[in-house]
Specification:
Layout: E1 7-11, H1 16-27, E2 31-36, H2 39-50, E3 56-60, H3 66-79, E4 82-87, H4 103-130, E5 134-139, H5 152-171, E6 175-181, H6 188-195, H7 200-209, H8 216-228, E7 238-240
Parallel strand pairs: 1-2, 1-4, 2-3, 4-5, 5-6, 6-7
Helix pairs in contact: 1-2, 1-8, 3-4, 4-5, 6-7
């Protein structure tokens, strides 16, 4: 389907995969509401998108907060032709064993990956249903299915996010909902993993040394291609980079 003049909400848009997806959507003619916690970096991405001839609004804040989620959806409604959202924001906090994480770190991981997903659905779904449908994409991870020492909270949060997406797909068939698994991508999160204490660093170092890392642009192009070519075939499922 054409994305031209559609309006999409994208979280985690200030860097990495999120920035690459924002620019790829803008190249496809989509208008954007961009969310992230760093206002300066976020606005810089919004300016890059506007330079490509589309509307782009930056909404800085934590998407796990009720007010931020409301602002994101309201901004999409103001632009018009609200088509869906991509929840890309995530926090890893790699290295410590699960019990060594602080309560604040644990809350941040679950807030970015799970609660923000809930808040977006909470406000976006009623609006998309009133329009007759839309698309909800949750950027997932292989960590949801694999136990590795040093990413316990992240893996648990991604498993919960995957379940949340499948539940939404079951409950509301009018909105195409799926998880996008982007593959190992060369981002700040990968760098954090390589520099983390403990054995998890070996795994992340291996991704880079063995040449397994995709660029953010490669992963973003794959996601946008999925959105342009019958995304409903992945409703309730996990789509991967290779599916594009």
């Amino acid at each position: 389907m054409s994305l031209k003049q559609q309006t999409w909400i994208l979280t985690g848009a200030s860097r990495g995969i999120g920035r690459a997806v924002a620019l790829e959507l803008a190249h496809a003619g989509a208008n954007l509401v961009l969310g992230a916690r760093n206002p300066q970096a976020l606005e810089a991405v919004a300016q890059e998108c506007r330079a490509l001839g589309v509307q782009a609004k930056s909404v800085a804040g934590d998407a796990a907060l009720d007010q931020t989620a409301q602002f994101l959806v309201k901004a999409a409604k103001v632009i018009g032709n609200f088509a869906g959202f991509i929840h890309n924001a995530g926090v890893l906090h790699p290295g410590p064993t699960l019990w060594e994480l602080s309560e604040a770190q644990f809350d941040e991981v679950f807030g970015a990956n799970v609660k923000a997903a809930f808040q977006l659905a909470r406000y976006a779904y009623p609006n998309l249903i009133r329009r007759g449908g839309g698309v909800a994409v949750f950027v997932g991870s292989g960590a949801a299915k694999r136990n590795v020492a040093g990413w316990g909270a992240y893996g648990a949060a991604k498993a919960a996010e995957h379940y949340l997406a499948a539940q939404l797909a079951l409950e509301e068939p009018r909105i195409t909902c799926f998880v996008y698994s982007p593959g190992p991508v060369d981002t700040d999160m990968q760098r954090q993993g390589r520099e983390a204490p403990g054995p998890i660093a070996t795994m992340f170092q291996g991704f880079k040394e063995q040449g397994h890392l995709l660029s953010p642009e490669q992963s973003a192009r794959a996601l946008v291609r999925l959105l342009q070519t019958d995304p409903h075939r992945f409703h309730g499922k996990i789509a991967t980079y290779n599916d594009a």
